[in-house]
Amino acid sequence: MRRLGLSLLAVVLIVSSAHLAIAKGAKKGPEKIKGPAPVAKSAEINEFKGEFKWGMAPQAVIEKLNLKIDNNFKERVAKVGTDPRRSDQLRGEIKVDKDRVAKSVVKFDGKKGGWDVSIIDEEFVQSNGESMLYYKEPKSTRYFFFSGDSLYKMFVAFDKDVVAGKSFPEFGEMMQGKYGKAQPVYRDVAQHGAKNKVLDAFQWRSAEGDGLKLVDRSKFYDVYCLVIYDHSVEDRQAEVRKNNAKNVPKGSFVDSVIEKTSDRDENDNVVDRITGKEVLKPGERRGGQQNIKVPSPTGGEMKAEDRAY
Predict the structure, then answer these.
(1) Within 13 Å, how many C-alpha atoms sit on residue 32's CB side?
(2) Quick one: three-class SS letters along 120-162?
(3) Counting beta carbons within 10 angstroms of the beta carbon of residue 132, is it exposed (0 to 12), middle (13 to 18) or buried (19 or more)?
C-alpha cells in the first residue's frame, strides 16, 4: 500500500507540474526558431510559383488553369484532326475539367464543412475573408488560397508515389537538395505527462518576401506538403488563427495532459463510431489508396486519382 501511495503521489506531482506549465503558457504547435530561415534558391522558387502571382483574383487564377488544361489536351486534339466524333469527345472532356476548377471555389464564410477536417484544415480561418480553389496536377493537388480575393498562398499536397515511402526527414533532405539548406521546426507533443519534440516542418524564405515550408501531414493523410506564401499576409492570418485558438473550449485537464498526442480533434470521427461506418475525411486515405481525396463542390467526393492530366 505504501508503494501504491508513493506511485499515486508521483502521478499527482507529474500532472500538477504539467498543469502549472500550461498555466504559465506552455508552447503549443510549431516551435519558434530564432533567426530568419535560410534563403531558398531563386530559380527553384520561381519554378514552383510558375505563372501565379500574389494578388491575383480567383478568376485570374482560373483563367491560368484553363490555359494549362488546354495545353494538356493540345497533343490529343492534334491527333484526332478533323474527326468530328473524337473532337466532340475531347471538347467535352476539356469542358468537364474547366468546370471542375470553376466549381472548386469555396468561401470560408463561417459555415463548417468537410474542409474543416481535411488536409488543409490548418491553412484557413472561417469568417476571415478567405477563399480557396484547387487543381489536380499530375502528381499532386494544388490549393490556391485568397485573402480578400487576392492570392497569397499555394499549398501542394504530393501524391503517395512522390513520397515513395520516405520518412519525413528523408523527404526533407531531398527537398533541401532542390531548394537549399532549410531550417527545421519542431513541435512539442504531450503524451502521458511528458513532452517530446517532433520534427514538424522545414522552412525557407525568398529574397522577395516569400515564405516556403515543407510540412508533415503523414500522421493522418500519408503525405507531405509544400507551402509557399506571401509572408506579410500569412503572418496576419497566423495571428488571427492564434487568437481564434484561444477562444476554443478545451477538453478535460486529464485529456489535454495525459492523453493528448496531437493537435487533431480526437472526436472528429464521432459519427463513424456511432454508425459503425467509416467516412473518409477530405484528404484522408486508408488501405493503401494512392492519392489525395477532395470533396466535390456538388456535395459528393471526387478522388484526385480520377483526374490525371
Answers:
(1) 6
(2) CCCCCCCCCCEEEEEEEECCEEEEEEEECCEEEEEEEEECHHH
(3) buried
Q: At what angle do helices 58-80 and 84-103 cross, to 10 degrees?
A: 160
Q: Which residues contact 153 (CB under 8 A, 6 or more apart)?
A: 123, 144, 145, 227, 228, 229, 230, 233, 234
* Positions of the chain with pLDDT under 50: 1-30, 252-291, 295-309
* Location of C-alpha cell 506579410: 232
What per-residue string of b and e applies to 33-44 under the rule 16 or more CB within 10 Å gives b?
eeeebeebeeeb
Q: Which of 154, 159, 160 is nearest to 123 (CA)?
A: 154
The three-point CA angle 113-119-124 to 5° equals: 65
C-alpha span between 158 and 149 (Å, rounded): 25
CA–CA separation, 106 and 157 (whole Å): 18
Question: What pLDDT score does 250 carry?
Answer: 53
For 42-61, what is each residue's pLDDT tens digit?
999 999 999 999 999 999 99
Residue 219 CA, chain-centre distance (Å), reads 12
Q: Alpha carbon of 246 to those of 25, 28, 71, 243, 249: distances in Å?
A: 11, 11, 47, 5, 8
Going by DSSP bridges, is the β-strand pair 210-217/223-230 parallel, antiparallel, or unpaired?
antiparallel
Give the side-chain half-sphere CA count within 13 A for 158: 21
Domain boundaries, the chain: 26-57+104-306
DSSP run (H or E) holding 216 = strand 210-217
Spell 203-240 as b/e; 16+ CB within 10 A means b. Answer: bbbbeeebbbbbbbbbebbbbbbbbbbbbebbeebeee
